[in-house]
Amino acid sequence: MKVVAETLGVSRSNLHARLNGSAKPRRRYHKAQDAAVLPLITTLVAARPTYGYRRITALLNRQLRAQGDSPVNHKRVYRIMKAHNLLLARRYTERPNLTHKGKVVTMRSNIRWCSDGFEFTCWNGDVIRGAFIIDAHDREIISWRAVVNAGISGSDIRDMMLEAVERRFGDYRTPHPVEMLSDNGSCYVARETRIFARQLGLRSCYTPVKSPESNGIAEAFVKTLKRDYVHVTPLPDAATVLRLVAGWIEDYNDNHPHSGLKMRSPREFIAAHTATA
């Protein structure tokens, strides 16, 4: 009996109970309150089909707190979603051999901004290309630009820089140097762009060649934009999509739970830190 139990990886008492029929069949664990939470979870999953159980938990608790109810543990949400086949399918991918050992995240807002581009195609063949600036601490998209069937120019980047400085500091120049991290695209490394950045108080810095991990925060937003918005939304033509992009970015800033922000959205995180400052 001992050898069989060790081979199967179970205890001898469990094996003995199974053999003599005294073991009770396990039933699915549930709480009486699950019935009240399930419709809320189902509605959130229908509205956010790309969200996993942790982000669904964050949205659910945000809704429950607004109603004056107690929040729900993420393990309970996982159990309910698993029982009703609402979990996302697991995706297994190999990690790249080249890993970035630097640290992009900063300890405070307005220390380092990151910028990158995105691109996707509409159903009629129109190509949308855009760029954005995101804060490396609070993850808010500060400014962005999008164009149709063209590339992002240095002028677009400079307009985006100026808008970001005005929104964060209410002036045409930063009160202290702010790093501006980007790749080595021509619109970023152009002489006019570098000079304009210095005039605004931004210090341009660039990622090493073939090292997208060095701008991981910006890369993560591009992935989120495509996964949670582009891939689940009809994209008939450029005119329709350009009207949607603004709403996507506002929704991300206002509502998207971020694991690096303790499952708060960027603006929730900023508001919480502003209140305690």
Automatic annotation (TrEMBL):
Provide the GO biological process annotations: DNA integration
Where the record annotates domain Integrase catalytic, the positions are 92-274
Tell me one Pfam family matched here: rve
Q: Which GO terms describe its molecular function?
A: nucleic acid binding
Which protein are we looking at? Integrase catalytic domain-containing protein
Q: Which organism is it from?
A: Oceanicola granulosus (strain ATCC BAA-861 / DSM 15982 / KCTC 12143 / HTCC2516)
